Amino acid sequence: MSDGRAVLVTGASRGIGAAVAHAFASAGDRVAVHYGRSADRAEEVAASLPGEGHVVVGADLADAEAVRRMVDAAADGLGGLDVLVNNAGVFEAHPITETTYEEWQRAWQDTLSVNLVGAANVTWCAVQHMLPRGTGRIVNVSSRGAFRGEPTHPAYGASKAAIIAFGQSLARALGPHGIAVTAVAPGFTETDMAAEALAGAEGDRRRAESPLGRVATPEEVAAAVLFLASEDAAMASGSVLDINGASYLRM
Ligand code: NAP
Q: How far is residue 44's CA from residue 40's CA, in Å, rounded to a whole number?
C-alpha cells in the first residue's frame, strides 16, 4: 500500500482548510495541518484525520522567517512535499468611505501580507522541496470576490485577484518542472469567516444569489481542491475553478 502524498494545507485549523485536510487524509495522504493562532484547534483537526503520519505546523504567514521554518518543518515531518494548498486568509472590512487614511493603510498591509505575500512566501519555500522531485501540485484558494468585486473589503478582493495572477505566472514557470498550479474561487462558504455575512436577512439574501438557494459547504470546496491536486489534473494547470453555485457567472 502507498503511503500517499505529502500535503501542506495552510489555515487548516478550521473552516475550508480543515475540510481540505480531511479530504486529503481520507484519500490516503499525509497532511501538515498549518495554523496561525489556533494551535489547539489544529491539534484537534490533526487528531481527527484518518490515516497516519500527519503533523501540525504553525506560523504567522505575515512573518517570512516563520514561514520558512514552518514549511521546512512540514517537509521534515512528512518526508518531503508533493502538494501545497494556499488556503489561509483574512477578510477585513475597510470601506473607503468609512475609514481613516491610517485604518486604510493598516487594512491593506494586514490583508496583503497574509493573503498574497504570505502565500507567495509559503510557495517559494514549498517549491524548494518540490523541484528535486520533478513533480508537484499547488492549489491557491481565491474567491468569487476576485471577479465580482468586494466593495467593503477592497484589499481582500485585490488579494484574491492577485493570487490568481500569481498562480498563473507560476503555472508557466513551473510547468517544465512537473508542477501544476491552479486555483479555486469559492463564493460564500459556511465557515467562521462568512458567519456574520450569512446571518439574518442578509444571509438569506446571499443564499438566494444562487439558484441552488444555498452557499457552499467547506467539504464542497475541499472536493474541488482534491481534484485539482490530483495526478489527473496536470492539464488543468493555470485554471480557476468556480465553486459558487452559479451565483456569479463569468466567461
Ligand atoms: P476561516 O474559517 O476564517 O479560517 C481562516 C484560516 O486562515 C484559519 O485557519 C487561520 O488560522 C488562518 N489564518 C488567518 N490569518 C493567518 C495568519 N496571519 N497566519 C497564519 N494563518 C492565518 O476562513 P475560511 O472561510 O475557511 O477561509 C479559507 C480560505 O477560503 C481563505 O483564503 C478565504 O479567503 C477563502 N474563501 C472563503 C470564503 C467563505 O465564504 N468562507 C469564500 C471565498 C473564499 P488560525 O485560526 O490558526 O489563526
A: 6
